[in-house]
Write a structure and sequence with these properties.
Layout: H1 17-23, H2 28-80, H3 87-90, H4 102-111, E1 125-128, E2 131-133, H5 150-158, H6 161-173, H7 194-214, H8 217-233, H9 240-261, H10 268-280, H11 284-307, H12 309-317, H13 327-336, H14 338-380, H15 383-386, H16 388-395, H17 409-412, H18 415-448, E3 477-480, E4 486-490, E5 520-521, E6 524-525, H19 528-547
Parallel strand pairs: 2-6
Antiparallel strand pairs: 1-2, 3-4, 4-5
Length: about 550
């Protein structure tokens, strides 16, 4: 015992002086024993600290690589399925069917004056469930803040007819409208052409109604044809928001067609031309391209915000200070706004290394399930059946988000939003098919002075085949009414056939529209009494606003 104690032994010859000092008191062996116990405990404590450090550091590091590898594995799985997982792969090739008139169109539309919305007419305006006002037939067309817009509208366009002709010419002579946005910028790309594109549809809608009202039916037909062609030609932009703007223009076209349908001024060949444009209009392929691009944007977006967490904070928490730069600032922030400071700490130091990979994986799944639903819909023409995987994913979520207590995740993987995208796509395709069938019925009536008993009566002269309702995969619903009119409808986004019920299913003060109906019914023209009642409600609302 004495020889192994470094405190009381000496490497030199002889013995340690302390040995003799403590021999007399008999304390030497006890001192050495306590020293050895202390050294043993220190080793155990050190080993425990090392284990704690390894656990605290090692588990997060392992979790980081586990989550990162899960994203990589899923991307490899997508590549094996043929998905375009990079922006470069997802950029659509330039169209070759003719010259590209996108920039010429934008140049023309930018020369037009700003729209006077007080004189902007609403086409196919519902005044009751299943009943719409025929705007061009009204001697005095009222809007919410104008008792008669015809005079002002005519004045607005009196000096713009040459530019209007140029606008229609650009659309008709250029079968491609491709603005080629900078896809490599990812979600930060600029899309300055979207407002002009929508403006084109709004202008052509107003002018067509004005010309129908004035009896200028050939001019009205040119505007109708140009508006349909614009949507048909603008089909190569792989950006989801661009497609939504396109769907908005498509909905305006549907309303315009309904208005024109109430007139007998156009002949069969003109209606056939409009039908052919609609038949050539592709809704689903551009939607698939856009969803693929959104999926490809994922890697670019997440890499950017991992490198710059302040960018994420500005998105998640709004404007203001986007970073905390010093320890003093951090302490001050914690004391002043502890909740916000902890969120800031999470965004800067935790999210980029751990949660971001979980969010990225869910973001990829969101786009994949949406894309698969559209791919399946092109085959089975049934959006309800095609959305099974997406709905199953939604059921695994809470409140439409995969992490209900994580507001950040809802920015990247919001299942309810994804479901909403599919509804918009399906709605646009449904309107296209309903418009085609309505035109075929119009042409049938021109020839036979009556409507067919069934839609099969339109085949093969007016339709190649009976079109399906994309909402449930069955044929679009149709029946011949006893008064000689017809009921044409889709079952709508819930997929439930309610017999052509146009009621909104909403509270009574909600204005009815086609897509708010229990079924989506091709509306009947409103009676004079129904229009008068609607005008009285406008007058009352205008009077109440002035009193305030």
């Amino acid at each position: 015992m004495l020889r192994c104690c470094p405190l009381f032994s000496s490497k030199r010859k002889g013995t340690s002086p302390f040995r003799f000092l403590f021999m007399r008191d008999g304390l030497l062996d006890a001192g050495c024993l306590r020293f050895h116990q202390f050294m043993k405990h220190r080793k155990i404590i050190g080993l425990g600290i090392l284990v704690v450090v390894l656990v605290v550091v090692g588990i997060p590091v392992l979790q980081h690589y586990r989550l990162k590898s899960a994203v990589t594995a899923y991307r490899n799985e997508l590549r094996a399925k043929g998905r375009k997982t990079s922006i470069a792969e997802a950029i659509p090739p330039a169209q070759t069917r003719g010259p590209n008139g996108a920039y010429a169109l934008q140049g023309v539309i930018n020369r037009f004056p700003s729209l006077n919305f007080s004189n902007q007419p609403s086409s196919m305006l519902y005044v009751a469930p299943g009943k719409a006002r025929v705007a061009w037939q009204e001697a005095f067309l009222r809007q919410s803040d104008n008792t008669n817009i015809w005079t002002g509208l005519a004045q607005d366009w009196k000096e713009q007819r040459e530019m209007l002709a140029e606008l229609r010419q650009v659309i008709e002579e250029n079968p491609v409208l491709d603005f080629r946005p900078n896809y490599t910028a990812g979600v930060m790309m600029l899309l300055p052409h979207l407002t002009p594109v929508k403006k084109v549809a709004q202008i052509l809608n107003a002018v067509m109604l004005l010309d129908l009202h004035a009896g200028q039916t050939e001019e009205a037909f040119k505007s109708m044809r140009a508006s349909l062609l614009m949507v048909a030609h603008y089909d190569n932009e792989a950006v989801l928001i661009s497609q939504f703007v396109r769907y908005g223009c498509h909905a305006i076209n549907f309303n315009m067609l309904w208005e024109a349908w109430q007139s007998d001024a156009w002949n069969d060949s003109q209606w056939q031309e409009l039908q052919q444009i609609l038949e050539a209009t592709d809704i689903l392929r551009p939607a698939m391209m856009s969803l693929e691009m959104e999926q490809a944007f994922s890697a670019n977006t997440f890499q950017k915000i991992r490198n710059n967490p302040a960018l994420l904070r500005s998105w998640a928490m709004g404007a203001g200070n986007t970073s905390v730069t010093s320890i003093v600032d951090q302490v001050k922030a914690i004391l002043d706004e502890p909740k916000e400071a902890m969120q800031d700490f999470r965004l800067h130091y935790i999210w980029p290394y751990w949660a971001s990979y979980h969010h990225e994986l869910n973001n990829l799944k969101q786009w994949e399930y949406s894309l698969q639903a559209i791919l399946d819909t092109t085959k089975n023409e049934n959006i309800q059946k095609s959305s099974i995987n997406l709905r199953a994913w939604i059921e695994d979520c809470t409140d439409g988000r995969c992490c209900p207590d994580d507001p950040i995740e809802s920015m990247f993987a919001n299942a309810r939003a994804s479901e909403g995208y599919l509804k918009k796509i399906a709605a646009a395709e449904t309107l296209r098919r309903m418009a085609i069938v309505a035109i075929a019925l119009k042409r049938y009536h021109h020839q036979h002075q009556s409507y067919p008993e069934k839609l099969e009566g339109l085949v093969p002269v007016f339709l190649k085949a009976v079109l399906k309702d994309i909402m449930d995969g069955q044929s679009l619903r149709y029946r011949l009414n006893t008064n000689g009119t017809f009921t044409l409808y889709s079952v709508g986004e819930d997929g439930i056939d309610q017999g052509g019920e146009p009621g909104t299913g909403y509270k009574s003060d909600t204005r009815p529209t086609l897509q708010r109906g229990k079924d989506w019914v091709w509306p009947q023209p409103a009676t004079a009494a129904e229009v008068d009642q609607y005008n009285e409600s406008l007058d009352k609302s205008r009077f109440n606003r002035r009193r305030k």
